[in-house]
Amino acid sequence: MPLALLLAGMPAVTAYSARVTAMPAQDDAAFIGTWKGESLCQVKDSPCNDEKVVYTIARAKESDKVNIRADKIVDGRPVTMGVGDWDYDKEKNTLTLVIPRGVWKLTINASKIDGILTLSDKTIYRRMWLKKDDNQ
Predict the structure, then answer these.
(1) Cα–Cα distance between 41 and 49 in angstroms, integer?
(2) Domain around 98
(3) Are 70 and 79 in contact (CB under 8 A)?
(4) Cα–Cα distances in Å, from 13 out to 6, 8, 21?
(5) What's the per-residue H, E or C state across 24-83?
(6) Is 127 helix (H, G, I), strand (E, B) or coil?
(7) Does 79 reside within a domain?
(8) If I label 132, which of 27, 30, 42, 107 is the partner at 20 to 30 A Cα–Cα?
(9) 18 is a domain residue
(10) What's the CATH number where 56 sits?
(11) Residue 24, Cβ neighbours under 10 Å: how many?
(12) Is residue 78 part of a domain?
């Protein structure tokens, strides 16, 4: 087979391979809603407390952000810890919030979210596991 014919098919094969192996981005509509789970301290000798949490995720004005209200459950009732816009990386399926103490990073995987709070000194301070609340 002539080299020109062999090389002519290379871009198509490469493009097809990239499409097949690329991880599809999460549809943001799939993770909009209420998520429940646990946020557990990773530094045991600290003022940190393990918590039951509820995260409510909504669309933000900017397409590369989502708005999150983070509540902890105290005596069976939600207490809001904070509300704000988080960066949404559609390719990596992550939500990120930079705070003065460090960075929250949530990784979305279908009906679950795994989160981590890493302090500025690289200490992993919290880990969080959330499941989508289908009863909303």
Answers:
(1) 6
(2) 26-132
(3) no
(4) 11, 10, 12
(5) CCCCHHHHCEEEEEEEEECCCCCCCCCEEEEEEEEECCCCCEEEEEEEEEECCEEEEEEE
(6) strand
(7) yes
(8) 42
(9) no
(10) 2.40.128.20
(11) 8
(12) yes
Which one-letter amino acid corresponds to residue 53?
V
34 in a structural domain = yes
* The pair of three-digit structure tokens given for residue 14, joined into one six-digit string: 């490469």
Number of domains making up the chain: 1
Q: How far is CA 17 from CA 6, 90, 92, 99, in A?
A: 16, 21, 19, 39
Distance CA(56)–CA(41), nearest Å, equals 21
Grouping H, G, I as helix, E, B as strand and the rest as coil, residue 125 is strand
Segment 52-61, tens digit of pLDDT: 999 999 999 9
Tokens of 5: 């014919």
CB count within 10 Å of CB 47 equals 6
- Give yes or no for residue 14 having a pLDDT over 50: no
Residue in the structure block whose two tokens are 């890493």: 118
